Amino acid sequence: MNKQSESYRELCTEFYVLDNPHAPLDALRYYLACAAEANGSILEPMCGAGRFLIPLIEEGYDVTGFDNSPHMLEVCRNKCFEKKINPQLVEASFETFSSNISYKLIFIPSASFCLLVDLVDVQQALRKIFECLANDGKFIFEIETLKAVREPQGIWSGRWIKKDDGSLFLHNRIFHFDTVTNIETRLCRKELWENNRIVQTEVEEFRLHLYVHNELDEILEGIGFKIKNKFIPYTRTQADENAQMILYECVK
Fold first, then answer.
1. Has domain 10-145+211-251 been given CATH number 3.40.50.150?
2. pTM value surpassing 0.90
3. Which of 20, 34, 161, 236 is deepest in the core (most CB within 10 A)?
């Protein structure tokens, strides 16, 4: 089972949703354009709380989402209920997800793909995506590169968000980058404060694989994908070795 399943528990999910209530506008515009071009069923693996999935559905697109985090999916379902939409949402990993649909577009935004840190999990995910992708479909995803290593390393930093009820969410984190494995570990501590008292605490470890510029190319091609484009996200600028993020557009 991939490491994504260990992430985004209750407090972490609530803080993430408060801190990221909407998809970035440039990213959302890009994926809306991709959805229009796809003209068919869409799959969003690792869909989280639905900040991309829900706007696409509201625009009339047929989108299925799956995620390993029950807390994220609960938030997504509640949002969908409020908006009176009823997408297919599945609690699953790449290992367990199955579908009889051939999707015209499969997309993973926001570099969530980097949460798959083991090569076996990466290959398993890509094989599942290849299997689910229509012959004339497109697979789009984003990764972070070694140029995106967070600084400073080994020093705690933090911030807080004030909730509508007056309680405070305190978020502390520390980064460690392993130069041998190219895995960045983020240790995150969430605290919920009410009336100047800590009432709930949660600690989670997030691990992200940061990639060398062309590291994924051979893996993708080995699965059977053809790499159509490698852009700096949401632009038509080709990503070079200095890019902090790379957006892949792949076809069969």
1. yes
2. yes
3. 34
Confidence of residue 5 (pLDDT cuts 50, 70, 90): very low
Q: Does the pLDDT of residue 2 top 60, yes or no?
A: no
Longest dimension (CA), the chain: 57
Rounded Cα–Cα distance for residues 121 and 162 (Å): 37
Say how far apart CA 192 and CA 167 lie, in whole Å. Answer: 7
Candidates 2.40.10, 2.20.25, 3.30.460, 1.20.120; correct CATH number of 155-209? 2.20.25
User: CA dihedral defined by 27, 30, 32, 38, rounded to 10 degrees?
Assistant: -140
Question: Contact at 8 Å (CB) between 159 and 142?
Answer: no
3-state secondary structure 42-76: EEEECCCCCCCHHHHHHCCCCEEEEECCHHHHHHH
Q: Which amino acid is at 63?
A: V
Cis ω for the linkage preceding 45 (within 30 of 0): no
Ranges in the chain annotated CATH 2.20.25: 155-209
The tokens of 210 are what? 């940061």
What is the rounded radius of gyration, in angstroms, for the C-alpha atoms of the chain? 18
